[in-house]
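Predict structure. Input: Metallophosphoesterase, 256 residues.
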Amino acid sequence: MARGHSVRLLQVTDMHLQQDPTTLMRGENVERRFQHVMQHIEGETADLLLLTGDLTHHAPAAYDRLALSLQGLPFPSCWLPGNHDLIDEMARFSALGYNRKVVEQGAWRVILLDSTASPDGKGGGSLANEELAFFAQQLAQTASDQHVLVALHHHPVPVKSEWMDNIGLGNKNDFWALVDSCPQVKGVVCGHVHHAVQQQRGAVNVLASPATAPQFKPFSAVATTEDDPRFTGPAYRRIQLYDDGEIQSDVVRLTS
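Output follows.
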C-alpha cells in the first residue's frame, strides 16, 4: 500500500541571475534557463519551494525579478544566500517570508543556514559562530518525534571534484558535530556544485541539485562546463519527506 507523505519540497538552486537579464554566463542566458524551470514547476504540487543560494550574481535588480516570479507560484517559497548573493538585498523581501530560517510542515522541520561567512575569495564559505549557535539552538528545540532537514548553500561532504571540494563548507567538522548530536536530522540539502549529488553519510541523506544556470562536469580537477547533452539543461530537485523520516528524491532535467 502506498504510504502518505507529510511534505513535498522542490529545490531550485544556483540561478546566477544577472543585473541585465540579457547577460550571458558561460555562453548561456541564465534568465531564460531559470524561467524555463519556473514555468515547469508551476504545474507541480508542492508544499514549499526551497532556493539554496547563488540566486543572483551580485545583481540587486535581479532580486526584484526573482521575487515577482516567486509570487506567481501556487505554493510558498523561502531562500538562503550563496557566495554570489547580496544579503542586504535579500533582506528587502523579509515581509514576503522568503528569509525564514525555520519552516515547520507536518512531522518535519526545515532549518535554513547561511554558509557565506569567512569567504575565501574563491567561492568557499563557512557557518559563522552565531549561525552555529542558532543551529544548535534549533536542534535542541526539535521534539523527539520530529524530523529535520537542513539546508545550506555550500556542500559539507566531498563531491570528488578537486576544485569544488576546495571551496566547500569551510567548517564542515563543526557542522557535522552538531548534526551527529541530533538523531532527528535525516537529511541535508545544498547547492553550489552545479550537478546532482546524492550521498548517504551514516543515517543522513545528503542531496544537491543541478543548477538552473550552466552545469559543471562532476569528478573534475578544474572547473569544467558540462557538455554532455543529457546533463547540460537547467534542472531542479523534487524531495519527498515521509512521516517516518524517510527521504526520497529525484532530479527533473529540462532541455537547454
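Residues 30-41 form the longest helix (12 residues).
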